[in-house]
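Recall the central idea of this unit: under ordinary conditions, the amino acid sequence of a chain determines the structure it adopts. In this exercise we apply that idea directly, starting from the sequence alone.
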Amino acid sequence: MNILLLYPEMPGTIGKFEHMVDLTGRKSAFPPIGLLTVAAMLPEEWNKKVIDLNTDPLYETDLHWADYAFISAMNVQAKTSKDVIELCNKVGVPVVAGGPLFTHEYEKFPGVDHFVLNEAELTLPQFLDDFEKGNAKHVYGSDQFADTHTTPAPMWELVDVNKYLYAVIQYSRGCPYLCDFCDVTALFGRVPRTKTPEQIIAELDTLMASGKNEMIFFADDNLIGNKNLLKKELLPALVEWRGRNKYAPAFATQLTINLVDDEELMQLMLEAGFRHVLIGIESIDEESLIQMKKKQNSRRNILENMKKLHAKGFIVIGTFIVGLDTDNENVFQNVVNFIQESGIVLVVVNVLKAPPGTELYDRMVREKRLLEDFEFDEDRTNIIPIMEPNVLHNGYKHVLEGVYSPKSVYERVVKFYETKEPYNVKYPLNRKVNLKDFYNFIRIITRLGIIDSDRKYFWKMIVFTFKFNINYTDLTVLYALLMYQYKILLQEFHRKEQKGIYIYSDKLKDRVAESA
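Accordingly, the structure predicted from this sequence is:
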């Protein structure tokens, strides 16, 4: 049996880091860990081939080889998933699909033969058993949650890890919080389920053996969802592992702001090698936080929390949302001011959207405010806003112009370094530099320091770093790449606007014209 595992292309959002990746000589930012994990659950005797359309093209000859095509995708990949399914249908290859996109809206994909929904540890064995008997059903689902202790390690041998900027590991699934715009609890529940430290260390050893010594992203919904277990088991194991691996890479992850409330946890995470932490800030308005049920962010000084995390040694990645029902016209400048003052260099600003499976989605249906046709890009929405659409569009543009411009990024880099304080850990981060790194550095200097029209900000950033602390040069180069990425994204937003493409669907354009 020949199985072709396909990962559709990601859209050109900030999460793709397309232009950053290109300048580093890689093909994509992150490998498809979910698809590689599913591959490990398939019968050992089956022939398996992975094609990630973010790194390699899909040819009809690949499909002619396959007996079945397995597709996994997230909401942002809806459009490209349909393209892949259409190509499979054209060639006559049966399609098996799973992942968050299909779990929520499988009815929208008529070209799929079998849906293996929810967590594959539960539903894939059912499908495989029926498939072996010759009576596989159209849809497999479960309202239970999997035991992640049984989850196999991803089959990293099916991809070239050096095509990716970073590697990925997942320790836990689920989150104890109930933010109304988030589908994590619907997909994975409120009680975090974890792998064992032994599972994680084995996966790390595999990645290190492959030569992957850049940053590794822990793709958890909320790494600190079970803080006691994290402090008792995983973090001590990671510290010990780091002591055995001189060139162990830094870690990044996603977690909640209450990390800042736990001094012991912060120090343990630093000792374990965690540096970049993605935190959903979403709003700095108390009323908005209450409405979206983001209680972990309420009743605290978020700006001071961000500065404290930076001072401790973390590098915060912040996400924000505009277009909330409680927002007014002042929100856009307030967001810009907060971001610039916080020194959070890597920010993602979304227009409010309601993913299927969320409480917000259900409310938008009840209030008849849901727009069906849209894409899950940062600058798109599927709801009819309370705010006038043209005010929202222009306000969102104001935010992008206020935080994505090279000048704004440079100012945040300076603010970040001025906030950052020295920290001590038992096993400092060491990076092994090779000839390829040298070539990449020359490529970056050529593009950003010579060719680019905003090269003055690149050199200002470099000079400031040399004066402040030359040991931060690696991080400054990353920020320079990010500055370039933001510049391109802002230009693309302006181009779409000139073509009449707005942040909302065509159904709202008449309202915009009326209120203009």
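The first strand starts at residue 2 and ends at 7.
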